[in-house]
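Feature request disguised as a bug report, sorry. It would help if multi-protein outputs had a clear separator. Right now it looks like this:
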Amino acid sequence: MSRKTRTTQKNFKVFCEGDTEYHYIDEMRRQKKLSITLKPVNMKGGGYRNFLDQVKTDGTANCLAKFIIIDGDRALVEKGEKKNLLELVNYCILQNQSGRIPHFLIVNYPDFEYIACLHTPKYKGQNVAQYLIKELGYKSIDEFKANQNIYHVLNTNVNSSALMLSSLKKENCFIINNYAISKKLYEIKATTVYDLEKLGNRGSNINEFFEIIDSFNT
């Protein structure tokens, strides 16, 4: 009698900064039963360089794709960070050109708090901090960031990720990852382009993360 072949389940690795992104994606993973391994990155003292170092040294065994989700604001407000961001961008470009594990760099500008606001129907470009405090009832941005139930807050009643995705200004994206998915071969191929002149425009390519994750969950 022949032995059954054990199939190893590949997963997505998500590198993210900040408690808000971690709590959001972690609960999304549980709710949708997604094959995601979260890799929180400590930005203190290293910024984008910490992301680059961690992504470089992280293994690729049983990995279908790596997502690197960052805020873009520090590239324009902290010395040396634009250079570090471009190094991270170019590393991801090289990895995608190699045809091995695709690296999807996701840049939220100015930050994930802006993405959170887009989940709500009343947001029309107001000041992010003031809006979160006034409309979502937080006492401060720190309280918002510490909320472990943020996925539920942003995906209940009239709030939803679908609303956020429909509200994204994709034409403002600093970076875009074009990709092709083969579910039969269980693989993804990606190419990355960016436009430095668009860094500073409100926007995000976080739709790529949702699209790819959902495509392997249906």
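(second protein starts here, but nothing in the output says so)
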Amino acid sequence: MRRRARADKNYKFTEKRHSGVGTMAFVLSFVPMLLFFYAVYISFLREGQAPEKIGCVGIGAVVFAFLTLYVSVREARKENVIKRVPVAGAVMSVMMLAGWITVYVLGWVGL
């Protein structure tokens, strides 16, 4: 009997590897979220009366998010690299930037 060829034999072998720097950028893209929770914790402990400390934590988180975004995009553009992890790091960094910028805008507006 003759066997039928399976339709899922569309394999492509490649030399692509995971980028170590891209993976590190993805892991470090969670730091601004942790800093957000730390800022909320400080605000809770001081009953909302810690604007200088929360501002410093926020600025550090925004800078860190920009750095991880830059590294993630740089790693995603490289050849022979699996792009899922650096792209996920870039998406996480953009979400954290949007969140922190929203916090600052709401602070300036006074809501």
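Even a blank line would do. Unrelated, but nice: Helices lie at 20-28, 31-45, 51-76, 84-109.
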